[in-house]
Write the structure tokens for this entry.
Amino acid sequence: MAVITVERKPLTFLERTYLPQIAGGLATTFKHLIAPKKTLEYPEQRPAIPPGYRGVPTLVRDPNGREKCVSCQLCEFVCPPKAIRITPGEISADQTDRAHVEKAPQAFDIDMLRCIYCGLCQEVCPEEAIFLQNQYSMSGYTRAEMVNHKDKLYELGGTLPDQHYKWDQKKTAQDHGNAH
Amino acid sequence: MFDFFFQLHPVIQGLAKGLAVIMVIFPIAGACSMAERKVAAWIQDRPGPNRAIVPWVAWIPFLGKFLQRLGIFHVMADGGKMLFKEDSLPGHVNKFYFILAPIVAMIPALTTVTAVPFGAYFDSAGKVITLGLAPLDIGMLAVFAVSSLGVYSAILAGWASNSKYPFLGSVRASAQLISYELSMTLAVLPVFLWVNAPGLPGTMSFGRVVEFQSQPGFLGGMWFGFLMPLSAFIFLVALFAETNRQPFDTVESESDLVGSFHTEYGAFKWGLFFVAEYSHMIVGSGVFMLLFGGGWNPLPWVSLATAVDWLGAILPFAHAPLFVGVLSIAIFLGKTLAMIFFFMWVRWTLPRFRYDQVMKIGWQKMLPLSIANLLFYAIAIAVLQK
């Protein structure tokens, strides 16, 4: 391998006085002085949220307005910091439009002081009922305020477009005698 | 119009003038702290402090918003905070000197203002009368003598704090201020050699220096900054060192000395150090402008008298002493503030010199350079003025 000896030139007189460098530095800082500012003034201006962002976990309804969660508790078990606490409950018989599922959460609490926004709950959910959506700013004055209860979770979640219509397809299949 | 003022007892006159000057210097020092934050922000591509606002100002439709964006009210918020904070006195300090130090910092900082003229007007005979608190004939000498007392505050504060960082900082402060004072003094000597031409009464006054820069002709109207660029440069560098500004703020270097001599200070006493530093900067900038920047002359080769004559063609009252006085003060203040902006601009451009570099530059570069400069100009002036 050829070795290239780089000649190290001694500093010239002007360089040793620092002055051209200082003038160059002043020019650079002056350019920034008059350049447009890059600050995002937060409460008034909000950052653009990229797709796939993991914000506050929320519960969503299906396009028919029905609650998707069947309280299988997979999210509760997978949650690394144990932030999720679900109390399962049965669906009463008079709710005919929800006869396709057996259970729904009676209570669904996510402690946002524990949540680490890892998204495992969203990943594990077989019903696609829990999503980490765009909200990133949670604040409260008490610890109790930082626990999101079921109604708050649905309020935050809203309705997301359904990719599969899992239960509708299942019902159609059942109506056709489950013939594959 | 102002006869009643001149009929007052001289002591009362002096008090009134002194109060007037303090009323100007203090707000400027406060505004400088704001300007510092704003310039810092702008250079770093940020908008800077722009939130605080007084409710009834917010009701003013356009101006209110503008003042808010400018961060005017942050000055008041900062000042108010500093005044009402608990003024703690650590248990391990020497209490007398600890309290004395910020006072000693303020006194020379404000005293130097008395010797600095800040404007001029022409009396009915066309004679230039400088505006200043004390039109001393030893102006420059007085400024040097009093401003160098400022180092005592750093030494006292560092020693009285009875802890290591303040002590190291005060040792640095005394060494740095003493080293740069030499080259600073030597740098202004050519100016006074030039001003004290043979046949004229000897003087160290700033008024005479400015008068020399407002003469007709190419050489007469030339500011000393152009005539003696090296002197101006050495004086400027020494000024940065004397006011402890970047790149010479080894005295305060927060990364290696926490806060140096004011580490143990808080609240109002710390605020006094702060205001003293800015007052030093204001006075230093003023002195630089008087000596090398033409004082209250608006442009090189355009003296105040010429400018007033030009304005006289448009404005009927341009020759009134009051107008000329205010105009000259405005020009001088503008130049001084521009100089302070330069201080801030440099602060966000250059990194801090190491302490050994500061000493090396001071003793091995600036001092020989200023001596050579003095010799060169002494010979040149001797030849020119014979």
